[in-house]
């Protein structure tokens, strides 16, 4: 595993969220302007996906070079984006790409749940020490995050199957990140309660 290197927070944020914003912008610019290639018409969603996939790959490569490593969740997300984004482009079918968040969240919930059953602090390893906390706190956070990922998977399925492309793109671009940030903000009492003893005493 490569040694983690410090990187400017603004640059890391841009690389983390920039590709998603590129997808959002491309979709709204192209949604009313289908393009015909090799006798087949491609709508804005598939065209935006075709732009998003290489942009995300480039961002992940940049993160790998700058930080010296990628988190397991970043690698899993990249693989699923390439696979399901590629299927959407190849078959000219947005449904594959819309299913991708469901599979990502189900995968994360399954892996974290399996680690919890084995008594392994996989969440702590994945978060790479970003949150100092006692083992009991990590166990509680893992249980909550498993339930939250299952909720996000169900929410994604409900939205993409019942609403328009525009609604799903807004949900994917803004709804999911806001829900994730709100979830971790709501865990502040947990982080405080299970902070390492030396930090409590300081």
UniProtKB/TrEMBL annotation:
Membrane topology: Multi-pass membrane protein
Keywords: Cell inner membrane, Cell membrane, Membrane, Transmembrane, Transmembrane helix
Domain of life: Bacteria
Transmembrane segments: 12-30, 42-63, 70-91, 103-123, 135-154, 174-192
InterPro entries: YciB (IPR006008)
Primary localisation category: membrane
Pfam families in the record: IspA
Stated family: Belongs to the YciB family.
Summary of the function given for this chain in its UniProt record: Plays a role in cell envelope biogenesis, maintenance of cell envelope integrity and membrane homeostasis.
PANTHER family linked to this entry: INNER MEMBRANE-SPANNING PROTEIN YCIB (PTHR36917:SF1), INTRACELLULAR SEPTATION PROTEIN A-RELATED (PTHR36917)
Name of the protein described by the UniProt record: Inner membrane-spanning protein YciB
Organism of provenance: Rhodobacter lacus
Gene: yciB
């Amino acid at each position: 595993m490569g040694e983690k290197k410090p990187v400017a927070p603004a640059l890391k944020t841009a690389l983390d969220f920039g590709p998603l914003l590129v997808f959002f912008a491309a979709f709204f610019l192209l949604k009313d302007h289908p393009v015909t290639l090799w006798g087949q018409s491609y709508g804005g969603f598939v065209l935006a996906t075709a732009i998003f996939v290489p942009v995300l790959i480039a961002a992940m490569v940049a993160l790998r070079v700058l930080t010296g490593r990628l988190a397991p969740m970043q690698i899993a997300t990249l693989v699923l984006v390439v696979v399901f984004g590629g299927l959407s482009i190849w078959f000219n079918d947005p449904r594959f790409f819309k299913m991708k968040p469901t599979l990502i969240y189900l995968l994360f919930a399954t892996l974290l749940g399996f680690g919890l059953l084995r008594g392994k602090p996989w969440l702590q390893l994945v978060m790479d020490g970003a949150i100092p906390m006692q083992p009991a706190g990590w166990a509680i956070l893992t249980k909550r995050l498993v339930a939250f990922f299952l909720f996000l998977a169900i929410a994604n399925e409900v939205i993409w199957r019942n609403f328009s492309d525009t609604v799903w793109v807004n949900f994917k671009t803004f709804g999911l990140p806001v829900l994730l940030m709100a979830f971790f903000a709501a865990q502040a009492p947990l982080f405080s309660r299970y902070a390492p003893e030396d930090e409590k005493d300081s």
